[in-house]
Design a protein that fits this description.
39% helix; 3 helices; alpha+beta; 5 strands; 5-stranded antiparallel β-sheet
């Protein structure tokens, strides 16, 4: 098979354009990656402060995860250095979701009750923020069955409630709370 000269020039031109665009994207990434990482840290800190009012500062703590689940994952656990409680960052998805996990931060006070919920990512069309997530505030690990699921978003709200149960299980398993729900 013979390659004609008239086909070589456009192929080389396209290859050069692709190399220039790739190099430009690499430079933009190099310039912006630190800013993006700092913005992500600041957004995380904001969600921690939102769910645990009165917290002074947070430190990451190691935890053990007794649940093996492909639907719910505990991303990180933070302890308030002033003993207000814990903040847990959770990612969950339901069998109905688009594949993008719903992520939220859950504050659990030193009394073992939920102090706040901040949904940080949710791509479903039906919004479960607000009244539904607010209905968890003040609940302990043994009161979750009384939270009403959202009509029209039953899969997502059920996955959310299961993820909250998962967060309580991780805190308990890791020794941050005993079975009575009281903070250590």
């Amino acid at each position: 098979m013979k390659i004609e000269k008239k086909h070589v020039a456009p192929v080389l031109t396209l290859a050069v354009i692709c190399l220039i665009v790739a190099a430009a994207l690499a430079v933009v990434n190099l310039i912006t990656k630190d800013v993006i990482a700092e913005n992500a840290r600041e957004a995380e800190r904001k969600s921690l402060m939102e769910v645990l009012p009165g917290a002074s500062d947070f430190e990451a703590v190691e935890f053990s995860d007794p649940w093996s689940s492909d639907r719910s994952e505990i991303k990180s656990v933070y302890r308030d250095t002033g003993s207000a409680g814990y903040a847990v960052i959770v990612a969950t998805s339901s069998s109905y979701t688009s594949g993008d996990p719903m992520t939220f931060t859950l504050g659990i006070g030193s009394d073992g009750r939920i102090t706040g919920v901040s949904v940080t990512a949710y791509s479903e069309t039906r919004n479960i923020r607000g009244e539904f997530t607010g209905s968890f505030v003040g609940k302990g690990k043994d009161d979750l069955s009384g939270v009403e699921l959202v009509s029209g978003a039953t899969y997502s709200s059920s996955a959310f409630r299961t993820a909250v149960e998962h967060a309580f299980a991780v805190l308990s398993e890791s020794g941050f709370y005993n079975d009575g729900g009281q903070g250590k």
